[in-house]
Give the backbone structure.
Amino acid sequence: MDSGNCSEEESEGSEVDSPLLEELGSKVKHPKHKEKALEEEEEEEPCFETAGELRWKEGLAQKASEAFLRQQRSTPNLRKLVYGTVAEESEEEESGGGELGGLFHVSRPESEKRRRADGLDCSHYPPDATRDWNQQEVLDSIRDCFVTGKWEDDKDATRLLQEDEELYGDFEDLETGELHQGDSGKQEDQAEEDESGEGEDEDGGKVKGNAEGEKQQQRLDRKRRLKERFNAEYDEGDATFFDDLKGEMQRQAELNRAEFSAVDDETRVQYEGFRPGMYLRLEIQSLPCEFITNFDPNYPVILGGLGASEGNVGYLQMRLKKHRWHQRILKTRDPLILSLGWRRFQTLPLYHIEDHNGRNRLLKYTPQHMHCGATLWGPITPQGTGFLAVQSVSGTKAGFRIAATGVVLDLDKSVTVVKKLKLIGYPYKIYKNTAFIKDMFNSVLEVAKFEGAALRTVSGVRGQIKKALRAPPGAYRATFEDRLLMSDIVFLRSWFPVSVPQLYNPVTSLLLPLGEKESWTGMRTVGQLKHDLGVKVKPNKDSLYKPVVRKKRHFNPLHIPKELQRALPFKNKPKNAEKKGKVPRDLQRPAVIKEPHEKKIAALLAALGTVHNHKRKSAQARQREQHKDFLRQRQKQEMDKTKRQKEARKNMFRMIGQREKKQQKSSLKGAAQHD
């Protein structure tokens, strides 16, 4: 495209030659491209030499559209090549066909087939002979469409890389400290060296060089602005609301400092309040006198404020976890010192855990390596406030550890902590599946409260409480799945709500005399009290092991009905065998009294039997030893045999490997000879 610096000879011609139109047709392919081309034309510097030099631009849009349509006609239609029809032809035919009411078209299949049969073969593409590609002008018109052609400045890759090198070429190696200079620095040095030679150039060269330098400087400025915008967006992308707020406060502080720099402190305090770093005088009312008398200036005191609702005391629901470095687990109702918000106080927490059915079951000790719930009586603190707990703040201990940590969840007594309660009763009358139970309750009122509760016996029989009995007090009637025995024990499993102890003991270590501020001790546990007072622990009688004495049970004889006895096989039928009595004297075997000669014969036979048994045992022992030796020899032979087989296998595989290697070498040598 011409840059606008046209001559008078070019402006005299009223027509544009065909190579220029063809070049415009090859470049202008879309209306957007045409608008872009027109904008680029407008941006170029106008020609001030002659008045009629822009005449060649007349009708440029119409000429470009004609070139575009001509190029579209020369482009092969793929749909026509594949399907043999074109959408425009079908639309013309449909528009020319007959219509019925403007909705339906009359189809004529015979004429359509005849027209298609007489049509041209669409698979043959006629060559375009409008352009002679042997001419140099036609070839030059499409030369810039390829990579090797001349591109525009903003699209030329070599030019863009050169500009990037000029803008970002200089860098410093942070590890070695070496400074690397890009092409821009080198060009600047070269430009400084050639300043003396520039004065000898012609005036036209100076103007052209200045114009190119201005354009290059504009491009560099534009890229520099883009880089600054990119850095501003991505380098500060991790900024949070706190960072923005802090920056705003810093800007406001700088503005206030600049505004009130010439104002005295008294007037400045009235406008902006007390600044950080200023000394204040506070007046605190209702302060204990011990704080003044026992004041220690070396002991730091931190002042803090409380909200309007934080002065009340109530129930707190917390999520607590024993610290992993604390040596022992924590026990329910043991005093614990909490640091919660601005307060340090001692309280008695109840530990509990929520079951799958939503019940908060009381825990005697905190679980290992997991969280649990804690309910205590303390100051009202906002939800989500964290806290830490210690068992003692008196003195310096070598094994001091933080006992627990947690967070406040709720501020009301909506959680009911319950513990397991197991009641035991014994049957005293049994009527089939109904039984009268006693020793479980003490009054009719207690039984009425538990009507419908589930029961279970030691043997696993389930039941239900029905109604209380008049006598004895606390007895009731219950039904079970099966008949009970008098020796069964009936259990009732229930849950009993536990009340939270209301203890709130603030840590008043600042009221102690000098040197005793670290010796504050609050409530002590029962174990600590017994240890300090030297009281021995009395064991609970119910917790001691006692010998179990069980009465011998007498079972009734098995009674089988006669009809069932007839159906049983003979081996399972009960036999009516009477007990054997004493054998009569006439049937008893009489005692045999041996003669002296018979005694000698019996003694000789016994001695011979003893010798025979001894010989037999000795022979068996020798046979066992011989068998062991035989097994040992056989095992040794097997090991030798296995070793020989392994060696033979190794030799065989070694020979096979050597043979294969020789064959491979010979085959490679033969192949080399053939080559």
Notes: Residues 1-51, 86-97 have pLDDT under 50 and may be disordered. The longest helix spans residues 596-674. The radius of gyration is 56 Å. The longest strand covers residues 417-431.
